[in-house]
Amino acid sequence: MTSVKLPVGFGRLWTAQTVSSLGDGVTHAALPLLAVALTRDPMALAVVTAAGTLPWLLFGVLGGALVDRWDRRRTMWVTDAARAVLLVVPAAAAAFDMLSIPLLAGTAFLLALGGLFFDTAATAYLPDLLRRDPALLERANARLRGAQTATSGFAGPPAGSALLALGRSVPLLADAVSFALSALLVRSLPAVPRPAAQARESLLRQARAGASYVFKDRLLLGLALRPAVGNIAFLAVETVLALFAHERLGVGALGFGLLLTAEATGGLLGAGIASFLGRRLGTGTALTCTATIEGLAILGLAAAPNAYVAGLALAVCGAGMGATMVLGPSLRQAIVPAHLMGRVASTSRMLAMCAAPFGAFLGGWLATAYDLRTPLYAAAGLLLAMTAVTATMTSNRRVEAALLDARPQAVQTAAT
C-alpha cells in the first residue's frame, strides 16, 4: 500500500505545538514546585491543580460551539499570543517575591481557558487539513503526541526544575516565549474550508447539538468516559505526586522532574507503537488493553518502595496513556462530521476536564484524612473499574461500523 505524505502545513503545526509543549512541560514542573514552596497544605495544592480544569467545566461546550463558528487557525494563534502576555504577570510577581496560591491558581485557570480554545480549534483543524483520512490522522496524531510527550514530559520538566534554580520567574518567562513562537508559526498555516455557517441557530442550541451527538452515540460516549474517569484518577495522583515524591520517596526538585520524565519516556514509546497495536488488536481492543495497563501501573506506583520502582510504574502508565491519546482522538476525528468537530471535541474534553477537579480534591482529601499513598490506590481502583465498564462501548465491532458509516463523508471531503 502506497504511503501518502503528510502535507507541508502539518509540519508547521507540528513545530508550533512542539515548541509550545516544551514550554508547557517547563511550567508543568514549575507550578507545583512553586506551590509547594509556598505551602505544604495538600488542599491548597489541590486548589492550584483544580483551577487548571475549571474552564472546561464552565465553558467547555460553549467553547466548542464558538470554535465551530470562528476561523480555527486564527483562534489558535490569537490564543497563544494572549497566553504569552498572561505569563508576564506571575513572572513579575515571582521576580518581586509576590507570588501567592491565589495568583498561581488564577494563572492556571487562564492558561487552561486559552488551552480550551487552542486545543479545540487544533483538533477541528487537523482533520480538515488531512482530508479526514483515517491513516493520515493516526500518523499525524502519533507524531503530535510523540512530540508533545517528548517535550512537555521528557525535556520540559527537568528544564523547568533547572530553570527554577535560576529564579522563580525564569520558567514562566520561558513558557511565555514558547507561546509567542507558537503563535507566529500557527499564523502561517494554510487556510482550510470552514464548515457551513449556522448563523440562524443560537449558540446554546448549537452547543446542545454537539453534546447530544456525543451522548447518543455509544462509541463516542465510551471514548469520552475513559478520559473522564481517568482524569479523576490521574488528578488525584498529580495533586499529591510532588509531596509523595518528597516525603515518601525522598527525592527533591530534580528527582521530581526525573519522575515526570520517566512517565514521558513511556508516553513517547506508547505513541510510537499505537498504530501497531491498533492494527494487531483492533482499535477497540487496543484501547481496552492500554486502559488496563494504566490502572495496573498506578497500582504499582502506590506500592512503590523507592523512586526507581515509582519511575518504572510511571513509565508504564505513560506508555498506556501515550497509545490511548493517539488511538482515541484519531478515531473520533475520522468519524465525526466536520461541522460538529469542534463541539464534539469540546464536549468530550469537557467531560474529562470537569471530572478532574473531583480528582484533585479527592486526592487532597484522602491524603489529608489517611495517607499520601491512599489517593494512588483509589486512583488505580477507579481506572480498572472504568476499563471494565467501557470495554463493550468501544469494541472492535462498534469501531469498524462507525468507520464504515463515515467513509462517504471522507470521500466527499477529499473531493472538495
UniProtKB/TrEMBL annotation:
GO terms for molecular function: transmembrane transporter activity. It comes from [Actinomadura] parvosata subsp. kistnae. Residues 219-416 form the Major facilitator superfamily (MFS) profile domain. GO terms for cellular component: plasma membrane. PANTHER family: INTEGRAL MEMBRANE EFFLUX PROTEIN-RELATED, MAJOR FACILITATOR SUPERFAMILY ASSOCIATED DOMAIN-CONTAINING PROTEIN. It is a multi-pass membrane protein. The chain crosses the membrane at residues 43-65, 77-96, 223-245, 251-277, 284-302, 308-329, 350-370, 376-394. The keyword Transmembrane applies. The keyword Transport applies. This is MFS transporter. It is found in: Cell membrane. Keywords: Cell membrane, Membrane, Transmembrane, Transmembrane helix, Transport.
